Amino acid sequence: MWTDLKTAAEAATTRSIMDLFQADPDRAETFSLAAFDMLFDYSKTQIDAASLEVLLGLAKDAGVAERRDAMFAGARINETEDRAVLHTALRNLDGDAVLVDGQDVMPDVLDTLARMETLAGEVRASDVTDVVNIGIGGSDLGPAMAYLALAPYCDGPRCHFVSNVDAADIADTLRGCDPEKTLFIVASKTFTTIETMTNARTARAWLQDNGVSTDGRFIALSSNADAAAEWGIPSERVLGFEDWVGGRYSMWGPIGLSLMIAIGAEGFKAFLRGGQAMDRNFQSADLYENMPVLLALVGIWHNQGLGHATRAVLPYDNRLSRLPAYLQQLEMESNGKSVAMDGTALPVNSGPVVWGEPGTNGQHAFYQLIHQGTRVVPCEFIVAAEGHESDLRHHHELLIANCLAQSEALMRGRSLDEARVIMAAKGLTGDELDRQARHRVFPGNRPSTTLMVPKVTPEVLGQIIALYEHRVFVEGVILGINSFDQWGVELGKELATSLGPLVSGDAPADGKDPSTQGLLAYVKRYS
Ligand code: F6P
């Protein structure tokens, strides 16, 4: 199946996006897709009708529809961990039965949601001024990203997100908090993660050092209720979730508690409703008009087809500044794998390197490379038609104008002749004109997509996040990998544990390689 993609991609290498628009006046409409009020435009790519057929063929051959149905039905599609994958159940607000091993999980899900509401309501009504979520990876990035994204809807206590084991993170956070009025949420699916447990202990010591009782100051969000109890958090302050919720897919349940405290239960449910709406779209729309599928196929086209190794996510929304980091975990931890589900080597590249920054800031930093560098970086723009600062509409108009300008510039480029005309108008002639003009050439024909949303409300954010989750799923199915494990993070964790005593000087570094020994010697000398 990959041969057809390679052939289609080779045929596209000389294809001009501008020519595609010339040849087909309906291209913008044909190669874009609406779901709810969202619009996904992928017309500024080299995809044409024939290559789209090939891509859809890949999705069909890989059994995307069947795997999708298996996921929603609670099958154990996370085969290397023998688990179901049911984060979608967390946003199944209607409560329709979802079976795992014949057991309906929805009563527990809805019960936990009700407990979250009660706890969040109590915190919002209390004198707590600061909530500190201590977690890392999936227990941090989702709520941290959404808290920032939904700042206009935050009317609860301030939330902070401490993740790094670097003491700077917790120290800087606690400096601004009043021990009498600070609540800690220890968010860890496993309740064993070294960074989180270290920060949680430091938080507890901070309260004690300030003469404040730790009673009622901690909430745990975890699948490991026993470990939370052992740590001293009573069961009524522990919100649990099942192993079928992967860490990077967990913000829809208890891990989203800080967000619920910040925006209130109704706002949080609107977020869930958005995710649920995208689930329904994903489940019911035909593949060729299925937004997560199309987003995935564009990704496969650029990465496995054309060989572009990275993907820039460029939200023109300052409050979506943590979205690229969130998507980095979602996409790279899910699809950064070189072994297929059956243990064989992947015949194509694994998922792309995902990176990005909000526009317009990125324009003044790395867009130079995107426009004129030797490598092509497919760009994914995200922008809302409306901002929240209605009294400053002119800012938003400029933001949109910049977003649209970038995708147009990437596509259109500027030829040497055009650059020569510009330089001649500035009075340059002869060799100097030629030399200067060459620096002002933009190759153009660089692909981008644009996701437009009406406004980043809780519901729309839910749609966006679920869209990306399903996109990752579809790409994973086409690659034939398990998107729901993360064995690649284990080796580093093991080595870090064994290196601890070597860094503190409690054990000799003899067995280590010369480079590591040299680096340890440096630490000893300077610490
Ligand atoms: O190290 C990777 C990872 O396991 C992620 O998948 C997860 O989101 C993160 O660590 C945090 O894990 P936990 O929620 O168990 O503390």
Give structural notes.
This protein starts with a helix and ends with a helix. With 527 residues, the protein is α/β, with parallel strands linked by helices. It is 49% helix and 11% strand. The chain has three domains: 2-62 and 285-388 and 447-485, Glucose-6-phosphate isomerase like protein, domain 1 (Rossmann fold, 3-Layer(aba) Sandwich); 87-269, Rossmann fold (3-Layer(aba) Sandwich), CATH 3.40.50; 493-526, Phosphoglucose isomerase, C-terminal domain (Orthogonal Bundle). The chain is globular and about 75 Å long. Helix 1 (2-12) runs antiparallel to helix 4, helix 7 (141-149) crosses helix 11 and helix 16 (416-425) packs across helix 17. The protein has helices spanning 2-12, 17-23, 27-30, 49-62, 64-72, 106-125, 141-149, 167-175, 194-209, 225-231, 257-284, 291-305, 323-335, 367-372, 393-412, 416-425, 430-439, 458-479, 490-504, 514-526; strands spanning 32-35, 38-41, 99-100, 103-104, 130-134, 158-162, 182-187, 218-222, 238-240, 310-316, 353-355, 379-384, 448-453. Bound molecules: 6-O-phosphono-beta-D-fructofuranose.
